[in-house]
Amino acid sequence: MSIFRSTAHPVFPVLICGLLWGSAFPVIKQVFLHWEDQGLERTLPIVYFFAGVRFCIAGAGLLFYGKNLRQELRQTSIKLLILLALTQTLIQYLCFYQAVALSSASLASLLVATGSFWWMLLSPPILKTPWPSALQWLGLIVGGVGVTLAVYAPGEGGENPIAGAGLMLLASCSGAFAVIIFQKVKHTISAVNSTGISLLSGGVALVLIGSTAMEHAGIMFDARVVVSTLWLAFVSAAAFSLWNYLTTLYPVTLLASYRFLIPICGVVESLVFLRTESPGWGLLVGGAMVLASVIFAQKNATR
After folding, report:
1. How far apart are CA 256 and CA 302, in angstroms?
2. What is the distance between the alpha carbons of residues 17 and 274, in angstroms, rounded to a whole number?
3. Distance (Å, rounded) from C-alpha 138 to C-alpha 26?
4. pLDDT digits over 173-201, tens only?
5. Cα 232 to Cα 216: distance, rounded to the nearest angstrom
6. Domain-by-domain residue ranges, the chain?
7. Model pTM?
8. Which helix (H) or strand (E) holds 156?
């Protein structure tokens, strides 16, 4: 990852994260649609067992690749690592997978942008950064209106966009907490090892939560779903470790200003690869408002 150290602005690596994370939305949705075609009911245990297998593979792969794990564990707070696993993997994806199941993948992708708003609200009391300025609060209000419009008329592809949006907001909030927690451990443990621990332990917890679905594993994981699971595991391992690594090189506020690339990638990839989805006027107008408010708020944050 040393190639990113000489990059003045993190546009390229954030774009890589965006393309990786963005691909997860249509891939997960395609797995759900494939199960429906196979006559397999998409119950909560099945969804969480599927998610847990993904993160177990991703976490184990990262820990195999990582170095000096024992030494770094002795220097790092175990409590903070547990909190990182809870927020980055377990809580975030308990909400995330249901959000994608209930809403369209494009709407869920758009709501990833709200992570930047959560950072602005959570960083001041936790990391003691300045509170948002008046202009930033205006950006938050505009973004909130945009989210409301997007949920009101998201287009086709979602069963319950309101519930899905609510769960996605909780997922992005949990993810914002994870970024903040990583700021407290990044000096004693590498991004690869910390992400590996988070994904593996969170994945094991998700597998246990969905353990009653194990009897359906043979039906769930046919050749198509196995390929999808391996890709999603790679997405988690690569994107999370790269993102956490970027937070060691750049201020969180600067990364947040480029984070709008992630929902753009997710929306575009979802609309391109999912025939079941088409954007409504609310998603288009509200999405533009959300992205504009993120850019506006973060530009004012650097002044």
Report:
1. 11
2. 20
3. 32
4. 998 899 889 888 989 999 889 999 999 99
5. 20
6. 9-301
7. 0.83
8. strand 155-156
